[in-house]
Amino acid sequence: MKKYIYSAIFASLLATGLSAQVSIGGKTSVEGSSSILDFNSDTQGIKVVTTAVAPNNKNTEGIILPAFSLAQAITDGLTTAGGSSNGTFYFDTQEKVVKMLENGVWVSLSDAATGSTTAITPNTSAESTQRQGAIIKTSNGTSLSATEIATIPAGVLVLESPNKALILPRIESAHLLVKSPYPGMMCYDVLGKALAIFDGTVWNYWK
User: Fold this and answer.
1) In sequence order, which residues have a C-beta less than 8 Å from that of residue 76 and are 6 or more positions away?
2) 36, exposed or middle or buried, with CB in 10 Å at 0-12, 13-18, 19+?
3) Which residues, other chains included, contact 179 with Cβ-Cβ below 8 Å and sequence gap of 6+?
4) How far is C-alpha 72 from the chain's CA centre?
């Protein structure tokens, strides 16, 4: 099963689960059989519009990670429902770095000396301790049960698959093309062939 999401329809996935390969942003197909989630850019970083590639329309859109202080989240009890799982990413507003959970340890993917939270617009709405995210899981086509959802680690977006991976939005030279990046933005730089992460001030590249 494949699902294609074109706009704010993604918001309707909150607190739900999908069994699918998913495309977001304009593609009508998911690249490859080993992809669980794909975005609207091709292998050269060109934005895809419906079934065609728009000439010279270079993609400038990436993923923006959740931004919060892990210490505050623990205090508020927001990390107790399922806890954090390896492969979890977020922007730490206290330390001003992008972090990833690896082998049970939070590791920094950007430099604390350059990070900035100046551009972050605080979310002042009341937070819920209930699961608010979307779960995309590849399986035999059946819907996720309440038991399955309850046992999957909490996250704004959780991808579950034994043999499929995420394709990040692809951008050519993110530090040049993205004019107003937001802290915690992440993409794959097709020219540098690297993971690109914006810390609020500069782009950090990982190969």
Assistant:
1) 127, 129
2) buried
3) 60
4) 21
